[in-house]
Amino acid sequence: MTYTPTTLLTFEQFIADYGDDFRYELADGELIDMEPTGPHETASGKLATKIGIAITHAQQPWFIPRTCLIQPLADIATARRPDVLVLDETLLDRKPLWQREPIITLGRSIKLVVEVVSSNWENDYARKVEEYALLGVPEYWIVDFRGLGGTAFIGKPKQPTFTVCQLDGEDYNQQQYRLGEAIVSPLLPDLQLRLDDVLPR
Question: Which residues form the Putative restriction endonuclease domain (predicted)?
């Protein structure tokens, strides 16, 4: 991931210039080039498939949008583009921007956010944890299939790690899973998933 040097953008400028460009996010007015790789997209796609199957089995009115932005805080020029996002369709009529653009500004309709870790692992393990908790997102997954995160987050020796963050009050309780372990999701109790299932071949 690289940070593109530029003057600071407002949220509105970002939407106008980069809203349809999947390569970019906005953080505190700074344009961030996400530089997606093939293995990253492979893991994201496999996760979306597994989650979609679990949603169908659970018969929930939820779906995974093809493209969507999250504005975590209205007073900060930040726009997140999660790798996988699960929305509750029954709550979208209350979203101020949704009828015109795929932008979520209130957390109630978000059921799950998934970030597949890349070179910007600090954001996934720290800043986004705070942002999604403030939004009230009930579950946030950090999928670090290459073991890139710092040892403070994934331990020693560094190894592939799948972290399920479950909201408890205003903070997340975190449970980590390694290769070979069945992942438990309170949101999707019938989910059949191990980290091994989403690894690129």
Answer: 12-195
Residue type, 191: L
Structural domain includes residue 65? yes
Q: Give me the half-sphere count of Cα atoms (radius 13 Å) on the Cβ side of residue 152.
A: 4
Range of the domain at 72: 37-198
Q: Side chain identity at 36, as an amino acid letter?
A: P
Q: Does residue 10 fall inside a structural domain?
A: no
> Which CATH number is 53's domain given?
3.90.1570.10
What is the spatial distance between Cα 23 and Cα 20, in angstroms, rounded to a whole number? 9
Per-residue pLDDT of the chain (201 residues; tens, 9 = 90+): 544 445 899 999 998 999 888 889 999 999 988 878 899 999 999 999 999 999 999 999 999 998 889 988 777 899 999 999 999 999 887 666 777 888 888 788 999 999 999 888 888 999 899 999 999 999 999 999 999 999 999 999 999 999 999 999 999 999 999 999 999 999 999 999 999 999 998
57 located within any domain? yes
Closest CA to 195 of 137, 154, 138: 154
- Is residue 139 within 8 A of residue 152, CB to CB? The reply is no
Which residues lie closer than 8 Å to 130 by C-beta, 6 or more apart? Answer: none
